[in-house]
């Protein structure tokens, strides 16, 4: 039985998430990073388990049908959560296409967007970002040194036309369309530290060495 109030349950039902799984894992020898395992689970399982506490709808953004077929057995382990896939229509523009198709693929107005190699997503931090984004265009974590975390943020669907405009101009940085939004809430990382003192929620895996470091950390 859920410990959430009726209001909290309603908010969860109006929240989506987009997992960007389309990267080719070049620094990992072209492996599918979401399927890498530690502690008996794949990274994708860790991600879905965490996100399903905050959302009821998840879109996994993949490159194509072949990649979907490689990942589909994982989502079958989560029958209580609505999970489906979106495919990239354009190549060579990085995560922007995955964000665009993912946002178009959800029914919710807001979605938490994250990379598919972040096994320690903190659901309390996700909730904070959703609460911060409500009534605004986006909520993006910001470090003290000014660095942003655009692939660990909540966006409204207003980001979609901004992405399309950026791509037309040949600008593929994730932050380019984000900065074109009119009402972005910058969530200071000092607030996130109170929920996740080690900031594990931002950790991702880019190399084999990264995977070895995080084994046993959870």
In short:
The protein has 218 residues and is α/β, with parallel strands linked by helices. 34% of the residues lie in helices and 20% in strands. It has helices at 6-13, 43-51, 65-75, 95-104, 123-133, 159-168, 175-178, 189-193, 208-214; strands at 15-20, 37-38, 41-42, 57-62, 82-87, 110-115, 138-142, 152-156, 184-188.
What does this structure look like?
- With 218 residues, the protein is α/β, with parallel strands linked by helices.
- The chain is 34% helix and 20% strand.
- It has 9 helices and 9 strands.
- It has helices at residues 6-13, 43-51, 65-75, 95-104, 123-133, 159-168, 175-178, 189-193, 208-214, and strands at 15-20, 37-38, 41-42, 57-62, 82-87, 110-115, 138-142, 152-156, 184-188.
- The strands form 2 sheets. The chain has a 7-stranded mixed beta sheet with strand order 5-4-1-6-8-7-9, with helices on both faces. A two-stranded antiparallel ribbon has the order 2-3.
- The longest helix has 11 residues, at 65-75.
- It is globular, with a radius of gyration of 16 Å.
- The model is unreliable at 1-10 and 25-30 (pLDDT under 50).
